């Protein structure tokens, strides 16, 4: 193996966002773009020589080329071994599972999650540390700093591409590349948590399910678990073949983007259970027959029913949710007598709580749910948890959720996304909101009394690190909230997210259309933030 030093120079804008560095494919295809970032990453890992890395991605366009480049750079940096998913594929939760099970030093995941793929779509790269979770901010900031002072990077020059289809060991110089089954470790983990016999019986009894893998990384995992281990009929998983452009779809499992599945679950002969996962299979959407479960409710329901599932039978240590996620989980935590942590948006903020044994279940409004079994959110895990509940109770998705509302009350919830806002305009809106905060606390708007108005800040209870400016919150008497924040995962302009929540304890009022139930809060958000005037837009692009 010959190592060459390639001269380069810093490229602006390589600061990782909510979940790694995400850009258009065309940006990543520029000379040195990927290499510069990988160099800054490897260089930030002081004791990398002789270590084992995990590598894989969601299979989107540019995945395979990037895998080969990263392997050649890893060899040049002296890593002893890289475990690569067959075909270059590893879902985000599977990468986390492999890092943990094999005791790897860390992992590189190539994904832009739920963003569209293909030559005109997005690409992304993120680094996970040895606990299997997303790198914390001090690591991503060190990587960013590295990208800003880079002058050269080493790479193995005279080596053939690794055959990613062939399981087993190959070599680049002294470095071993082991191509692994991307599904096996994760499936084994699932078997240890859930009652596979009960779920198999549920399918054998004729119950039906539709899992939409959205032509993304989740397909092989869902097929192996549902159609393989659980004996569900072939065809239970739709769009199960990962494609480089996700079949032209937007692989984001929400009612706006998973139209085909919503249509199937709305039909007269709809299956009993519907689910979907995103590009890298860490997100999930849960549906009943003609019934949509919000991610916030899903977290609360799983927490309230955890005792019915083998892996969680001994109880939960705590629950954690991101700040914009509804407070439904807080009510469950209170009933269980366990803590509920409120963190900033981004799965990385759950890592310390999980590592310290303070939380068992975590969830976000952005269709992410997970537990301490890995350090990422996990789409298939959430789906199997629900399936286990269906099998254990014999109830439908709708029955389980309605019983939950009857017991705890309903947290009506919706998120309005204002997409493609010019960055200066979005910043101006947020600045104006922040400037108004002092005058909003105590203000009354019609029936709504704002009890508290602030910019969310978080002090990590484990390491004491502080994250400020995490979203503007209006806390309204009675448990309602309006939250404003700018997305940290987009690649074009800014996306303003407006999160709306209303608590309703009266079961007679649990059947309102959510947008109607939230109407006064939607009006309040416009009145206070002047969204239309600031953005120049008429309506949110996506409502979930
Ligand atoms: C990714 C992250 C999540 C986050 C979501 C939305 O999926 O892993 O933790 O909640 O993006 O982030 P955004 O900044 O776009 O609202
Ligand atoms: Zn994702």
UniProtKB/TrEMBL annotation:
Family matches, as Gene3D superfamilies: Alpha-D-Glucose-1,6-Bisphosphate, subunit A, domain 3, Alpha-D-phosphohexomutase, C-terminal domain
Matches recorded under SUPFAM superfamilies: Phosphoglucomutase, C-terminal domain, Phosphoglucomutase, first 3 domains
Entry's Gene Ontology molecular function annotations: magnesium ion binding; phosphoglucomutase activity
Domain Alpha-D-phosphohexomutase alpha/beta/alpha stretches: 14-153, 206-287, 296-408
Keywords noted in UniProt: Isomerase, Magnesium, Metal-binding, Phosphoprotein
EC number per UniProt: 5.4.2.2
Enzyme class of the recorded protein, top EC level: isomerase
Biological processes per GO annotation: carbohydrate metabolic process
Cofactors, names only: Mg(2+)
Any single Pfam family the record assigns to this protein: PGM_PMM_I
GO CC list: cytosol
Catalytic activity annotation: alpha-D-glucose 1-phosphate = alpha-D-glucose 6-phosphate
Similarity remark: Belongs to the phosphohexose mutase family.
PANTHER family linked to this entry: PHOSPHOGLUCOMUTASE, PHOSPHOHEXOMUTASE FAMILY MEMBER
Protein name: phosphoglucomutase (alpha-D-glucose-1,6-bisphosphate-dependent)
């Amino acid at each position: 193996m010959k190592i060459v030093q390639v001269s380069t120079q810093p490229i602006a804008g390589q600061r990782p966002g909510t979940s790694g560095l995400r850009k258009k494919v065309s940006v990543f295809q520029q000379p040195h773009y990927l290499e510069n970032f990988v160099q800054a990453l490897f260089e930030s890992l002081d004791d990398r020589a002789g270590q084992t890395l995990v590598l894989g991605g969601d299979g989107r366009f540019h995945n395979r080329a990037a895998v080969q480049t990263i392997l050649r750079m890893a060899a040049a940096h002296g890593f002893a071994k890289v475990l690569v998913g067959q075909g270059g594929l590893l879902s985000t939760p599977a990468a986390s599972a492999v890092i943990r099970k094999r005791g790897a030093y860390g992992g590189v995941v190539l994904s832009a999650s739920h963003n569209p793929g293909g030559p005109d779509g997005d690409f992304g790269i993120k680094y996970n540390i040895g606990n299997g979770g997303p790198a914390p901010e001090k690591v991503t900031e060190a990587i960013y700093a590295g990208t800003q002072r880079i002058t050269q990077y080493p790479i193995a020059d005279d080596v053939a591409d690794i055959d990613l289809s062939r399981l087993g060991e190959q070599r680049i110089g002294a470095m071993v590349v082991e191509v692994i089954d991307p599904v096996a470790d994760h499936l084994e983990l699932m078997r240890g948590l859930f009652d596979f016999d009960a779920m198999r019986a549920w399918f054998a009894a004729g119950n039906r399910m539709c899992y939409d893998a959205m032509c993304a990384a989740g397909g092989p995992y869902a097929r192996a678990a549902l159609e393989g281990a659980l004996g569900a009929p072939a065809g239970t998983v739709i769009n199960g073949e990962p494609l480089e452009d996700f079949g032209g779809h937007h692989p984001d499992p929400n009612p706006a983007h998973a139209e085909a599945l919503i249509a199937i679950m709305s039909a007269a002969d709809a299956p009993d259970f519907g689910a979907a996962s995103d590009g890298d299979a860490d997100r999930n959407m849960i549906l009943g027959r003609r019934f949509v479960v919000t991610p916030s409710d899903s977290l609360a329901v799983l927490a309230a029913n955890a005792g019915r599932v083998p892996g969680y039978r001994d109880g939960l240590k705590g629950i954690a949710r991101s700040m914009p996620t509804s407070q439904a989980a807080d009510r469950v935590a209170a009933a269980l007598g366990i803590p509920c942590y409120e963190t900033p948006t981004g799965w990385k903020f759950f890592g310390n709580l999980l590592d310290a044994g303070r939380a068992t279940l975590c969830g976000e409004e952005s269709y992410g749910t997970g537990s301490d079994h890995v350090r990422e959110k996990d789409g298939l895990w959430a789906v199997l948890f629900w399936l286990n509940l269906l099998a254990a109770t014999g109830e439908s998705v709708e029955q389980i959720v309605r019983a939950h509302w009857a017991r705890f009350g309903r947290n009506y919830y919706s998120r309005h996304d204002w997409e493609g806002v010019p960055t200066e305009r979005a910043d101006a809106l947020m600045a104006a909101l922040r400037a108004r905060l002092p005058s909003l606390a105590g203000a009354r708007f019609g029936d709504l009394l704002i009890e508290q108005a602030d910019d969310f800040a978080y002090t990590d209870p484990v390491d004491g690190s502080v994250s400020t400016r995490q979203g503007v919150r209006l806390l309204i008497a009675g448990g309602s909230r309006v939250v404003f924040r700018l997305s940290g995962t987009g690649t074009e302009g800014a996306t303003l997210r407006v999160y709306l929540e209303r608590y309703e304890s009266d079961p007679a009022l649990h059947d309102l259309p959510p947008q109607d139930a939230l109407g006064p809060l939607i009006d309040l958000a416009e009145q206070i933030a002047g969204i239309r005037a600031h953005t120049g837009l008429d309506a949110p692009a996506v409502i979930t």
